[in-house]
């Protein structure tokens, strides 16, 4: 069961709305959202599919680098390798694109890892989650993503989340402590009982984060995510000592070694599992297992992947026992994707496919329609 072909499909998917974080716009409605689909074909004719969703405002990987990394550095090196040798596949990818201060090009590697695991599960005629010895679940609860610049917009979005019956929100902050607090209070008044995740995407220095965390204790925020710069684990450890609000790390945690360092320094209560930043399903599972063994909580997140990446991530989050609403918000921003079974949100949850593999089927016509030349 060897890899006989790797095909790469860069696309721009139509968006319902633009999407910004504290670092800037990560998805532009006019330009479309950059996604890369990867198809791995085995010598037995099985097709495994994976997805990468790069954003140059979130990390250094771009749609161009994902495509050239896979086409120019991974594809030839992986032809002829058994799909069941996933560690060997990662060894080859890590040798081809060496690590810098963290794993090199994890988003590109994640698309390969996802496609290989899809192909393995299809070869074994079983759902993806059987690889982790758990049974499939049919839905996953989402947190509604709110990224706004004032209280009026915040109230508007909070009402949409309420009407959509979401069980959680993920509020992007990073303007300044006073404006952020006003936004959070507005949302909390409208949604007093939902799981309340606040994500600064590294926007703050320690003193401001301390001030804000004390105010957030008053309004019972559930978790404060990545308040400080990714490299500042000591600052996060100090903040964690200072506040009763659980501190989550996202951009600080890319590899199992990062999880170990965060544990050693007492830098967080929670880590955010994301399939693509961690180099794929298998590495993300390893990060989750290590964190849980050390008593940390897990949050589920994504980089606004389309249906393929959403389903794969959701299956992994269930296998890891993540029960809080997850940030897999592609359907909130994408108007369409090249999927026969497009993920749609109902009552704040997404229905998951229960077929073999990831359960995702390509719509070839749409893949052609959305394809771009680089
Ligand atoms: Mg985050």
From TrEMBL:
GO terms for biological process: peptide metabolic process. GO terms for molecular function: magnesium ion binding; racemase and epimerase activity. It comes from the Bacteria. SMART domains: MR_MLE. Transmembrane segments: none annotated. Its cofactor is Mg(2+). Keywords: Isomerase, Magnesium, Metal-binding. The keyword Magnesium applies. InterPro entries: Enolase-like_C_sf, Enolase-like_N, Enolase_C-like, Mandelate_racemase_C, Mandelate_racemase_N_dom. Residues 151-246 form the Mandelate racemase/muconate lactonizing enzyme C-terminal domain. It holds the Pfam family MR_MLE_N. Belongs to the mandelate racemase/muconate lactonizing enzyme family. PANTHER family: O-SUCCINYLBENZOATE SYNTHASE (PTHR48073:SF2), O-SUCCINYLBENZOATE SYNTHASE-RELATED (PTHR48073). This is Mandelate racemase.
């Amino acid at each position: 069961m060897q890899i006989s072909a790797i095909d790469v499909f860069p696309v721009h998917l139509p968006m319902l709305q633009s999407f910004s974080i504290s670092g800037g716009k990560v998805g532009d409605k006019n330009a479309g959202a950059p996604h890369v689909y990867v198809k791995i074909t085995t010598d037995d004719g099985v097709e495994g599919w994976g997805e990468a969703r790069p954003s140059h405002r979130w990390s250094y990987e771009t749609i161009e680098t994902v495509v050239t990394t896979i086409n120019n550095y991974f594809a030839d090196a992986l032809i002829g390798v058994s799909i069941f040798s996933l560690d060997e596949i990662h060894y080859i990818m890590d040798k081809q694109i060496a690590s810098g201060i963290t794993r090199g090009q994890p988003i590109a590697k994640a698309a390969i890892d996802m496609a290989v695991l899809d192909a393995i599960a299809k070869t074994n005629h079983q759902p993806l989650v059987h690889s982790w010895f758990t049974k499939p679940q049919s839905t996953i609860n989402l947190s509604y993503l709110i990224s706004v610049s004032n209280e009026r917009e915040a109230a508007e979005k909070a009402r949409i989340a309420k009407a959509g019956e979401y069980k959680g929100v993920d509020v992007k902050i990073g303007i300044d402590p006073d404006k952020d607090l006003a936004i959070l209070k507005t949302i909390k008044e409208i949604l007093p009982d939902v799981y309340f995740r606040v994500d600064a995407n590294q926007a703050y220095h320690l003193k401001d984060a301390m001030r804000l965390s004390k105010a957030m204790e008053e309004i019972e925020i559930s978790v404060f995510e990545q308040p400080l710069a990714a490299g500042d684990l000591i600052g996060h450890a100090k903040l964690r000592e200072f506040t009763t609000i659980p501190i989550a790390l996202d951009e600080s945690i890319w590899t199992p070694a990062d999880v170990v360092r965060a544990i050693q320094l007492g830098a967080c209560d929670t880590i955010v599992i994301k399939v693509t930043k961690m180099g794929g399903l298998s590495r993300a599972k390893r990060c989750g297992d290590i964190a849980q063994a050390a008593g940390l909580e897990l949050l589920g997140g994504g980089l606004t992947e389309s249906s393929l990446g959403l389903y794969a991530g959701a299956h992994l989050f269930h296998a890891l026992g993540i029960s809080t609403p997850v940030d897999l918000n592609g359907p909130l921003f994408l108007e369409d994707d090249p999927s026969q079974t497009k993920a749609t949100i109902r009552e704040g949850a997404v229905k998951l496919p229960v077929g073999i593999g990831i359960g995702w089927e390509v719509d070839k016509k749409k893949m052609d329609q959305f394809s771009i030349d680089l």
